[in-house]
TrEMBL record, chain A:
GO molecular function terms attached to this record: metal ion binding
Pfam families the UniProt entry points to: Peptidase_M16, Peptidase_M16_C
Domain Peptidase M16 N-terminal: from-to ranges: 53-166
Keyword field: Signal
Organism, as annotated: Leeuwenhoekiella blandensis (strain CECT 7118 / CCUG 51940 / KCTC 22103 / MED217) (Flavobacterium sp. (strain MED217))
Peptidase M16 C-terminal domain location: 197-375
PANTHER family: METALLOPROTEASE (PTHR11851)
Cited Gene3D superfamilies: Lipoprotein localisation LolA/LolB/LppX, Metalloenzyme, LuxS/M16 peptidase-like
Protein name: Putative metallopeptidase, M16 family protein
InterPro entries: Metalloenz_LuxS/M16, MPP/UQCRC_Complex, Pept_M16_N, Peptidase_M16_C
SUPFAM superfamilies: LuxS/MPP-like metallohydrolase (SSF63411)
Signal peptide (from-to): 1-18
UniProtKB/TrEMBL annotation, chain B:
An annotated Gene Ontology molecular function: metallopeptidase activity
Domain called Peptidase M16 N-terminal: residue spans: 36-173
Record-given protein name: Peptidase family M16
GO process terms (BP): proteolysis
PANTHER family reported in the protein's UniProt record: NARDILYSIN, NON-CATALYTIC MEMBER OF PEPTIDASE SUBFAMILY M16B-RELATED
The species this protein was found in: Leeuwenhoekiella blandensis (strain CECT 7118 / CCUG 51940 / KCTC 22103 / MED217)
């Protein structure tokens, strides 16, 4: 085993300091020495290459078998790969499934299989038997109809468990759109495709793909190289070479101009936003290190610009990151993503594009680059703690066609990246003008603003897709509005629905007593109104008045927890509108009020009326009744939407009144049930003093 | 100052005994009460600096939940000498990585650096303990971030509210009843003063343990620790008293709705003893027996043989005051939740009524040995274990001796413990169901 020692390129200032000064950040000590050892390797006749890293610190061993195959398209049989992987490890031709599982568990070992992958690990005293079982199960699998059907059911069921996952939908659609549904990286499993697969299909996939031609077995741990060579030679000698796999696919292209691809998910409380484009990048490319640096600065972690902007500065999300992949077999992707709350979906898109554009247009600072290099160097040093790192380096050198000294030169390559390099690769790989912005979210809450998103002076077109990446029409909650209909028509049908103009005009006063609770605390609500601009709303808890709002002609006040404030004229004017017994009567013919469209409210179609800039009301298209009011408020730079739902309309004095109100703002929800509503009685002028 | 060097006596209790690497460490207290644990391992040029505070989700008053988790975020906002927003940059621009996590019982902050930045790690953690900046700005920003975290992890995530659904049933008085992340309205309602008071109360050297592990020189490290942490004033000792729970004597059945799922789940849970109780170790073994590995009883029967379950699992979720023993299952196809529940109870009934087989017992021992070997495979993992063992188990050397506890557990004891905690009348049952939308 040869050892290479070299010293880190840290700049270090060394000097004894007698007293600490905590107001200045401590400087790093002398750079630690790095020891990069080389693993030992050998190759079997069938092509299997074995990489062995001996490390005796802990009495354990791990085996990882990877097949360096090109991506394999499955077409209408998508799912055959997953099923073939699921059928591996169920015993072998030589040992029953139950005995196999029993023995693996007995040794305290772990063993996992995938369609082109196998791994195992355990205590080194069982090293040989673990390897033998791994090889046996991988090379002589036990595919049975019974197990196949079971795995088929499980795969279908697991699709269902992800059916409503916003993140899963966004991921699936983004890959399908980016690469195309016929590309191995874009195709996905559906219930139909899985149901159409037979045991023979799964076997066929295994026979085609599970071949030693480009296979690597990595062994790390408390083992002896000579033993490993003996064991591998014995247990893997029956593995037969297969036909070379083709790597011939349609070549996906980026979109000509940036577009939004929207997937409607009515259950979403957050939108998943993915900004992505295709790239050609391999580890062996000269651009590899500059691209790592550029991505790191943009969105590589907690100090990336995306995180600092979308999370730390704006509080839109729990985390926003970007990543750039590399693939020697063909196109791969750059992507930036975050789960953001519904209300800021549009602003997040803009923030993403601005950051991506900025790193393309402006050189990064000296400091940004220096810090990023330090981060990579640190991560390289830290990774050396695990013996598997050495094995990973060796595997990458083999599979990615890297020069022999790639990892010896790793740190100096990173240090050689310049500010110009970063901007050059940002322009080349982060395509803010040719990006797909895939968003899965609640259309009824986010679409209106999303359609207005513009960037660099251009509105970004929005296209709509279902969860299977099929192009669909714009979701229906904003369409289907009869032509020529006006807000006044909607108000008229509302007035008609609650009892007609005459009945409504006959009401001079109303008193409503309601009960509700917030987080278990009972509340009482009293509302009184007259047709003379008099209005009272009072909320009390166990006899104590918590809040009170009064309007009496041209004066009015608000009291909260003992403090009373007179209302300014502007608010009195606004309150007057709402204070009417049936406010819609007063709004007939008001041209500042517009009909915006149709949206769903709790599954019912409703006309949306914009009452003021901040307030909307929703009237059922079918019954004409008012279902909801929505008020947008600004507080501390944040936008909040408060909603009031009306339900349980019952007649009092010939006019229908909602007997149930639920008010919600953010996570808080208060429901009131009116126990008593009286018309033309129980109200006197004294109530409004 | 107490000083202890441990050397593990080799115990050959069983025919199969692993000579796992012994973790050597040294521990002592600073004058201000900060407990310090040092572990030297110079094989790789990496060092972990970490602080565990004895404060978690359960340290709160009604109406003010989620504070400890909130502080996990807030204490990255900056200190008197670390500019707001620069924490992550300082760490990563010096080749390090850092994070924090909060449980109901404790909060853990850590950095991992190349070893030439040990002093930097100590400086940062001492800054955080001595004088973090707690201002309205930071509170407002982190409040939004925490809300997003809640939406991401729980509200928008399939089965994300699984633990809430159980803990609100298993606990009626003890703060474990509320989510560790807290209720949003509590955080919204809390004033800046309340946050500042919370810091003063809990984030004191005498309520914390500092671990430095990895490529260090002991004497030099001790001096730096004294320099950076020595001047931090200690606070009054905390009085800890949490409401207790009456034993569960009758099974309850409740429903919980999650709009993010399509396949329902059945959850059943039992209240079990807290950290360090010998029975908790036995319960870990029982979990392993029931659902760890393909030959485990529940997996083999319900997923593999009978094909009734998509997934099944048994977890002994350990906490300081009470544990939660949880078994969950997702049905496959037409299987009803009750069928799953019956299947689970059948296997637990066997544990209560019969001794497990000799060969299953050996299997459990092998699994425990494997876990033991794997548990000490990284220096940062060792640091975390040392801190936890000291703070929550009151026995730092458990890192070396825990395996002896498992080795000493008998088949009879497994049966006894199953009878003590896992009877049908001691469980809560939660039907975790898809929330139907009105379309």
């Amino acid at each position: 085993m040869k050892n290479i020692f070299f010293s880190l390129l840290f700049i270090c200032s060394l000097g004894a300091v007698a007293q600490i000064d905590r107001s200045t950040q401590p400087k790093p000590g002398p750079a630690p020495e790095i020891n990069l050892s080389e693993p030992e390797t050998f190759t079997l006749k069938n092509g299997l290459k074995v990489i062995v890293v001996e490390n005796h610190k802990l009495p354990r061993v791990s085996y990882t078998l990877t097949l360096d195959n090109p991506p394999i398209a499955e077409g209408e049989k998508t799912g055959a790969a997953a099923l073939s992987g699921a059928l591996l490890g169920k015993g072998s031709a030589n040992i029953s499934k139950d005995d196999f599982n029993e023995e693996v568990d007995y040794m305290g070992a772990r063993m996992n299989f995938g369609s082109q992958y196998a791994s195992a690990g355990g205590l080194s005293q069982y090293a040989e038997r673990i390897l033998e079982l791994l090889a046996d199960a991988a090379i002589h699998p036990n595919f049975t109809q019974e197990e196949f059907e079971k795995e088929q059911d499980i795969l279908i069921e697991s699709l269902k468990t992800n059916e409503k996952s916003v993140e899963a939908a966004a991921g699936k659609v983004s890959r399908a759109l980016l690469y195309g549904k016929d590309h191995p990286k874009g195709e996905f499993e559906t219930q139909e495709s899985i149901e159409g697969i037979t045991l023979a299909d799964a076997k066929a996939f295994y026979n085609k793909a599970f071949i030693p031609n480009n296979a690597y077995l990595v062994v790390v741990g408390d083992v002896d190289y000579k033993d490993i060579k003996d064991w591998v030679t014995t247990y893997f000698k029956d593995w037969k070479k297969g036909a070379a796999l083709s790597n011939d696919f349609s070549n996906p292209e980026n979109v000509a101009t940036t577009e939004i691809n929207f997937v409607d998910m009515p259950n979403a409380v957050q939108s998943q936003v993915i900004v992505e484009n295709l790239v050609d990048l391999k580890m062996s490319d000269p651009d590899y290190f500059p691209a790592l640096m550029a991505n790191q600065i943009l969105g590589g972690g907690g100090e990336g610009r995306l995180f600092l902007n979308l999370r730390e500065d704006k509080g839109y999300t729990y985390g926003a990151y970007s990543s750039i992949n590399n693939d020697k077999y063909g196109k791969t992707s750059f992507s930036a993503s975050a789960s953001v709350r519904n209300m800021v979906t549009d602003s997040s898109v803009v923030a993403f594009l601005e950051e991506i554009d900025k790193i393309r247009q402006e050189p990064v600072t000296e400091k940004d680059l220096k810090n990023t290099k330090a981060k990579y160097i640190g991560s390289f040093v830290r990774s050396l703690e695990q013996p598997s790192t050495i094995a990973r380096f060796a595997l990458n050198k083999e599979t990615e066609g890297l020069p022999e000294d790639f990892y010896q030169n790793y740190l100096s390559k990173i240090n050689a990246v310049t500010i110009e390099d970063v901007q050059r690769v940002a322009k080349k790989y982060f395509l803010s003008d040719n990006a797909r912005i895939v968003i899965a979210g609640k259309g009824s809450e986010v679409l209106e603003n999303l359609e207005k998103v513009s960037f660099n002076g251009k509105t970004i077109p929005v296209k709509y897709y279902d969860k299977n990446a099929n192009n669909v029409a714009k979701p229906s909650y904003e369409v289907a509005m009869p032509e020529g209909l006006t807000a006044t028509d909607v108000f008229n049908s509302y007035i008609e629905a609650v009892g007609g103009q005459e009945a409504v005009a006959g009401i001079n006063s109303i008193m409503m007593l309601g009960e509700g609770s917030v987080q278990g605390t009972p509340l009482k609500l009293t509302i009184k109104k007259t047709s003379n601009n008099q209005y009272l709303e009072e909320i009390s808890v166990m006899g104590n008045v918590m809040s009170k709002q009064v309007l009496n002609g041209d004066s009015g006040s608000v009291s909260k927890q003992g403090q009373t404030m007179n209302l300014p004229a502007e608010q009195i004017k606004a309150l007057k509108k709402e204070a009417a017994i049936i406010p819609e009567m007063a709004m007939l013919g008001d041209e500042t009020i517009t009909l915006k469209g149709v949206e769903k409210v709790d599954g019912k179609d409703a006309y949306v009326i914009q009452l003021t800039d901040a307030k909307k009301a929703f009237y059922a298209t079918e019954s004409g009744l008012k279902l909801k009011e929505e008020t947008t408020q600004q507080m501390q730079g944040q936008t909040f939407v408060q909603t009031m739902l009306f339900d349980d309309y019952k007649s009092v004095g010939g006019v229908l009144f909602p007997h149930k109100l639920s008010q919600s703002m953010g996570p808080q929800n208060i429901e009131f049930t009116f126990t008593e509503i009286k018309v033309n009685e129980g109200v006197s002028d004294a109530d409004f003093q | 100052m107490k000083k202890t060097f441990f050397s593990l006596a080799s115990i050959l209790a069983m025919s199969l005994t692993i000579q796992a690497q012994e973790v050597e460490f040294e521990e002592y207290d600073l004058d201000n009460g900060l407990h310090v644990i040092l572990h030297q391992d110079n094989t790789a040029p990496v060092v972990t600096t970490s602080v565990m505070y004895h404060v978690g989700g359960k340290d709160r008053e009604d109406g003010r939940t989620g504070f400890a988790h909130f502080f996990e975020h807030l204490l990255f906002e900056g200190t008197e000498n670390i500019e707001n927003g620069k924490w992550f940059e300082i760490v990563s621009s010096n080749g390090g990585t850092n994070n924090a996590n909060t449980s109901q019982d404790r909060t853990y902050y850590y950095e991992v650096f190349p070893s030439n930045n040990l002093e930097l790690g100590l400086w940062m953690e001492s800054e955080r303990m001595l004088h973090p900046i707690i201002k309205q700005d930071g509170v407002d920003t982190q409040n939004e971030v925490v809300k997003e975290e809640r939406r991401l992890r729980y509200d928008n995530s399939p089965y994300g509210q699984f633990l809430f659904a159980i803990s609100e049933q298993l606990f009626k008085n003890h703060p474990y009843k509320d989510p560790n992340v807290g209720y949003m309205e509590d955080l919204d309602a809390a004033s800046l003063q309340e946050f500042q008071d919370y810091f003063k109360k809990y984030y004191k050297p005498n309520n914390a343990v500092l671990v430095v592990a990895g490529d260090i020189e002991v004497d030099e490290t001790k001096k730096m620790i004294e320099d950076y942490f020595g001047p931090i004033p200690s606070g009054p000792e905390l009085e800890r008293s949490y409401p207790t729970e009456a034993p569960i004597t009758e099974a309850t059945r409740t429903q919980f709705y999650d709009s993010n799922i399509q396949v329902p789940a059945i959850l059943t849970a039992y209240r079990t003893p807290g950290y360090g109780d010998r029975d908790a170790y036995v319960l870990n073994m029982i979990s392993s027996y029931l659902s760890d590995g393909k030959s485990s009883k529940l997996y083999k029967k319900m997923v593999d043989d009978e094909k009734k379950a998509l997934q099944i699992g048994a977890i002994n979720l350990e906490q300081e005051d009470y544990g939660m023993y949880i078994i969950f299952g997702l049905p496959l196809g037409e299987t009803s939740l009750d069928t799953l529940l019956e299947g689970m109870e059948e296997e637990i009934a066997k544990l209560r009524n019969e001794l497990i087989s000799e060969s299953d017992y050996e299997k459990l021992q092998n699994k425990a040995e494997t876990n033991f070997v794997n548990s000490n495979s990284s220096v940062s993992g060792i640091a975390n274990t040392l801190a936890r063992n000291y703070m929550l188990y009151d026995d730092t050397n458990l890192i070396n001796s825990e395996i002896e506890i498992y080795r000493s557990i008998t088949r009879e004891e497994i049966k006894e413990v199953a009878n003590k905690y896992l009877k049908p009348n001691q469980r809560v049952e939660v039907e975790y169901l898809p929330k139907k939308e009105e379309q």
